[in-house]
Amino acid sequence: MEMNIFQIIWFVLWGVLWAVYFALDGFDLGAGSLLYFLGKDEKERRVVYQAIGPFWDGNEVWLITAGGATFAAFPTAYAVMFSALYTPLLLLLFSLIIRGVAVEYRNKHESQTWRSFWDFLFFLGSLVPALLLGVAFANIFKGVPIDEKGLLQTNLFGLLNPYGLLGGLLFVFCFATHGALWVAFKTPSPFNERAASLAKKTWVVTLILVIVFWAASFVATNLWENYKKVPILAVFPLLAAICYLMVPLFLNKEAYFKAWACSALTIIFFTAWGVAGLFPNILPSSINPAYSLTIFNSSSSPLTLKIMTTVAVIFVPIVLAYTFWAYKTFSYKITEKDIAY
Amino acid sequence: MDVLLASRLQFAAAAMFHFLFVPLTLGLSFLTAIFQTLWLKTGDEDYKRAARFWGKLFLINFGLGVVTGITLEFQFGTNWRFYSQYVGDVFGSLLAIEATLAFFLESTFIAIWWFGWERVNPKVNTLAIWLTAIASNISALWILLANGWMQHPVGYVIRNGRAELESFTAVLTNSFAWWEFLHTVPSAYVLSGFFVLGVSAWHILRKNELSLFKKSFRVAAIWTMIFSLYLIVEGHIHGAEVAEKQPTKLAAMEAHWVTEKGAGWTLFAIPDEENERNLVEFIKVPKVLSLLAFHDPEAEVKGLKEWPKEERPPVALTFWSFRIMVGLGMLFGLLSILAYLKRNQPENSPRLLRALIWNIPLPYIAAQAGWMVAEVGRQPWIVYGLMKTKDAVSPLSSIQVGLSLPAFIIVYGILGIICFWLIAYHAKKGPEPSITFTEKPIKESI
Questions:
Q1: What is the span of the domain harbouring residue A289?
Q2: B61-93, pLDDT tens digit by residue?
Q3: Would the CB atoms of B81 and A81 count as touching at under 8 Å?
Q4: What is the pTM of this model?
Q5: ipTM value for the complex
Q6: Residue A211 belongs to a domain
Q7: Residue A205, domain member (yes or no)
Q8: pLDDT tens digits, one per residue of A179-220
Q9: Cross-chain residue pair B164–A304, CB shorter than 8 Å
Q10: Minimum distance, in Å, between the CA of residue A284 and any CA atom of chain B
C-alpha cells in the first residue's frame, strides 16, 4: 500500500476526535466521579445531574465517532486494537452502559433506594471509564506487546503496569478538575463554591501527576522522539502547560467558564502531544517496531479515505455549529425550575 | 467454551437486546412529534400533555437503545477481528458516517427537546423532536446499508488480501439494503403504533384521562393501519428479493429440500436437518412457493440439497422464525383495521381494547423473529458468499469470552427488566398535569 496524504489527514482527524471526546465527555465523567463530593444530599446531587444532563449523551457520541473513524480509516488497527484490548474495552463499555442508564433513570422514580442505587452506579460508571481510558492510552503511548500476527502477549494485569496506572490516575484527576470547573460554571452561588474549591485541590494533584507522567514518558515511551526530529511540535505540550497554568488564574477571579475552557484546551493540547508523539503509529508494538500498526500498514484504501474526508468536511462543521448552539442554549445557571425535570 | 460459539451468542444477545429498544425509538419519536405538532396547530392542551407523556416513555426507552448501540459498534473489533480487517474498508465507513450524520443530531436535539421545554420557543422545540425522529431514522438507514452489504455485498473488489471499496454508489444503491430499510423501519412504526394503542386502551378501559387517550388512540390507529397493511405488501416483494439474492435463506425459510419446478408451499413442517427432509408437513399448497418467490407457478425453486451441508443455514430456526413473523404480521393487519374502524369511539369496544393491551408484546416478538430470519438465515456466511462466520472470529481465549458472555446476559437482563418495568410504571401512571414553573433561583432552596 502506498502512502498518501489521506492517511495523514485521517491520522490528524483521529487525534482530533479523541481530543474533542476527552475535552467534552471528560467534564461529565469528572462530575460523576465527584458526585459524592459535590452533592452531599439528594437535592444537591440532582443539581450535579442537571449540570451535565443535556450534554453527556452528545459528548459520548464523540467516542462512538472516534471508534467509527478508527474502523473506517484504519480497519486493521481497529481490528487488532479492539480484540487485543478485549477485557478492558468490555469493562469500559459496561461502565458506560450502566452510567448512561443511571443518568436517564435516576430521576424517573421517587424512591430513595432507587436514587441511591443509581447514584452509586453513576459514580462508578464515571470513575471507571476515566481510569480505563487513561490506562489504555498510556499503554498505547508505551506500546503493547503484540506479535507479528497482532496477538497480545499479555493479559489485563500486564496492562496495569506502573506507567499505565499513572496514565489512569492522571485521567481521573484531570477529568475531575474539568468536571468540577463545569459544575462551578453551571450552578449558582453558593453551591458553586464547593465545586470551585474542589477544583483547586484536584488541579494541584493533576499538576503533579502530569509532571511525573511527562518525565516517565522519556523512559517508558518513544513519544518524545518525534519532538527531537521536529522541534516545532513542542508547541503542543507548551500550549497545554500554558492553558493549564491559566486555570487557577480564572478560578480565583470566579470566571468559571473561562477556567473550564482553559482546562478543555489543556486536554486538547495534551492529547495532541501524545498523538503527535505516536505518529505514524496507531498501536506500537513493544516487542518489535516492525509489528507496530501504523497509518501506512493499517489504513483503508485511498477511495474510502477520500469519501470519508468528503463526509467529514461537509458534516463536521454542521455538527460543530449545532453543538455550539446547544451548549449556548444550555449555558444558563441552574434554577429550581430545572431540577423539577 | 468454544470461542466462535460464545462470540456468536454474545453478538446475538447484544444485537437482539439492542433491537428491543430501537423500534420504539424509531416510531414513538415520530408519534410524539405528531402530537406536539397537533398541539401547536390546535392549541389543544391534551396534545401538549400527550406529547410530554409519550415523549417520556420514548426517552426511557431511548436511553437503553443508545447505550446498547455503542457495544455493537465496538463488538465488530473485539469479537470479529478478521471480519473487521477483511471488510473494514467497505463496512467501517458506513458506521462512521452513521455516527457523523445521525448520532450527533439525535443526541443534541433530544436534549434540546426535553431540557429545552421551557427554554426555547415551542416552534423550535417541536422542530427539535422532529429532528430527533428524522435522525434516528437516518441512523437506521446507514446501519441497514451496512447490514444489507453483509447480506448482499456489492461495489467491492478483492485487493491487497481484503475486500476494498470499488463503488460507493453501488453500496449506497444496494437494492437489498433498501428493501431491508423499507421493511425494518415501517415494522418499527407498527410496533410503536401498537404500543400507543395498547397503552391508550389500558387507560380508556379505566376511563382515565379519556379525552387525551382517545385522541392518542385515534392518531395511532390511523398510523398503525397504514404501516401494517403496507408491510403485508412490502413483505411479499421483500421475500421475492430474498429468493433472488439469497437462495439458501429462502430454502431454509420454507424448509424446501429438493429443487423442483412448480414448488409447493407448506404452512407448517418439522424440518429434520440430519436426514435432509421434513418429518411432518402440514397443509401443502401446490405451486404456491414458486408463485410467491418468482411470480410464476412453474418457476424452479432451489432446494437445500443443492448446497453442501456446511453451506446451509440452520433450517428449523429460520423456518419457524419466518412463520412467527408472517403470522403475526397478518394478525397485525387485522387488528389494525379493527382499531381503525373503532378509532372515534374505542371506549365502546372493550374486547378490542383488551386485545390491544395483550398485543403490546407481539410486535416485539415479530421484530426479533424477523431478525432471526435475516441473520440466522444468512449463516454460515458473515458476508453472504464472501466470508464465513467461522473465519471472522477474533483470536480470543475461551476464558475471555466465557466471562464476557454471562456478563452480557446478566447486565443486559437486569437493565432490560428495569427498563420495561419503568416504562410500565410511567405508562400506568399516566400524563403529568400541566404545570407552569415559577422562576426561583436555586440558592433559596439549597
A1: 5-179+282-340
A2: 998 888 888 888 899 999 999 999 999 999 999
A3: no
A4: 0.91
A5: 0.88
A6: no
A7: no
A8: 999 999 998 878 888 999 999 999 999 999 999 999 999 988
A9: yes
A10: 18
SS (H, E, C) chain B: CCHHHHHHHHHHHHHHHHHHHHHHHHHHHHHHHHHHHHHHHHCCHHHHHHHHHHHHHHHHHHHHHHHHHHHHHHHHHHHCHHHHHHHHHHHHHHHHHHHHHHHHHHHHHHHHHHHCCCCCCHHHHHHHHHHHHHHHHHHHHHHHHHHHHHHCCCCEEEECCEEEECCHHHHHCCHHHHHHHHHHHHHHHHHHHHHHHHHHHHHHHCCCCHHHHHHHHHHHHHHHHHHHHHHHHHHHHHHHHHHHHCHHHHHHHCCCCCCEECCCEEEEEEEECCCCEEEEEEEEECCHHHHHHHCCCCCEECCHHHCCHHHCCCHHHHHHHHHHHHHHHHHHHHHHHHHHHCCCCHHHCHHHHHHHHHHCCHHHHHHHHHHHHHHHCCCCEEECCCEEHHHCCCCCCHHHHHHHHHHHHHHHHHHHHHHHHHHHHHHHHCCCCCCCCCCCEHHHCC
The answer to whether residue A303 is domain-embedded is yes
- Whether A261 is in a domain gets the answer no
Minimal C-alpha gap between A259 and chain B (Å): 22
What total number of domains does chain A contain? 1
Residue of A17, A45, A64 to mutate, interface with B, max B Cβ within 10 Å: A64
